[in-house]
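User: I'm curious what two different proteins look like when written out as structure tokens. Can you demonstrate?

Assistant: Sure. I'll show them one after the other, since each token string lines up with its own sequence. Here's the first protein:
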Amino acid sequence: MRCSLCGCTESKVIDSRQSEDNLRIRRRRECLKCGARFTTYEERETSPLMVIKRDKSREPFDRQKLLNRLLRACAKRPVSVEVLEKLVADMEYHFANRMLKEVRSTDIGELVMQKLLEVDQVAYVRFASVYRDFQDVDSFMEELRRLKTEQPATLEDAT
């Protein structure tokens, strides 16, 4: 690991601990040449999770792509980036624990909507409108009716 200040590759580990998402090890290091301290993260090497798209093509799971979609759905909503990062980490953990090598994009979308509904209902509706690809106002209104009948108390509290 290169020192971010002088570029030296020799350093010693000062402190190690689990990251907040428990998927990485956070290490504080000290450069043996200049004494600068820096942080590195170590992850377990895994085979990439492949996503089977609707058109049957495959691509590697991209956590940043999912996070960007969630950020877009939660724009101007009282949802912190930390909450969304935890949501993505929970999803990665969910699929990793099942030892899956491939997952359908529809399964990812349904799980995102399930988790997003617990976080923010407006963000859920925004995400659902893109994910479910509503073709007209009637199908959109049907989703809103379904949401309202499934969670009436929560919707009244939000207004």
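Here's a second, unrelated protein for contrast:
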Amino acid sequence: MSARVTSITDLRARVRRRHELDLARSRVAIFVLVLVGLLLVVGLGAIMSASSVDGILGESDRLAIFRRQVRWVVVGLFLMVIAMLIPYDWYKRGSVWILGISIGGLLLVPMFGSTRGGAQRWLEVGSVTVQPSEFSKLAVVIFLASVLADRGERLGELQQVLGPTLLAVGVTCTLVVLQPDLGTALIIAGAGGGVVLASGVPLRYIVGGGALATALAAVSTLAYQYRRERFACFVDPLADPLGSCFQLAQSLMALGSGNLMGVGLGASRARWAFLPNAHTDFIFTIIAEETGFFGAVGLLAVLAGLSLAGIWIAYRTGDPFARLLASGITAWLSGQSIVNVGGVVGVIPVTGLALPFVSVGGSAMVAALVGAGVLVNIARTAPHPVVPKPRGDRQ
């Protein structure tokens, strides 16, 4: 009788723990959606302000850029909902096709792509312009997560890791660098590295891969004059304040003018043709100028909260593929946020990357929202990690 009572008690305890896990995961999924919603609202508000001058000068409509971004947000939200509802293991089944389509899109760019600012990165289909490299970030993560999750105990063998990594990360990054777009290539490599790190690959492989990637990035930086100039501006932002360092110098002045409370919403002075790309790469500068130190810190807190939620989701699932997929998406969104903000404040060289969910950029916005949808999907539906039996359970 005593053993039966103990068994019932243990069963109730395990059911209660399972219920607590379900509740916690539902809350995290809602938390991710709330944070993404906050970033979208902040971003659209900042875009309305930052792009108004360019809209007037370029299209005689202060809201032209804002309206286009709203349309991309609507498309992204629609695809985000689909990503939330599709069984996440479908991504694993189609991982080879997803990577193949991604690489195919990158191969079309040098043949049919349009060129802007000396870079050939976009495909135009009628009035719609798509940047394939933005979607390559998610494609690489899905493929690597699928392959490494299946190899499990064999990940200690170099060839088991090297082959899929070279195929996914190596080929994709090479095609992106040739556009040229070193910043996006670095994010793709970082996202792939996040998957490899979470898979449990021996540290020596990760250190070796990181050293190789750093060396290749250094060589790629030296290969182009504008990248050498960006690095020189990172070392000394005032080395050429009216030339190659103009954008960074203007960004730093705008950040300083924001002080603690900011100059006021819609009152940015940097947007008046002082700061190039104010609504794209340097949207964080406009937000910090208008809302001040406290507004900038608040935005960083939301981005950090999203990263922490992604980490929680990744390590609260018992499915290896789901864990690696969530880890890669989190590494991608977190890494891109760090690189964007670090560049505009002068902590790292400027790379020209969008701030996820905030900057203008249709492909970047859609890709980020789909990634967030996959994260929410995993939080809601991935199997629980194995719940250990109570110590007193001898069954």
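A detail about the second structure: The radius of gyration is 23 Å.
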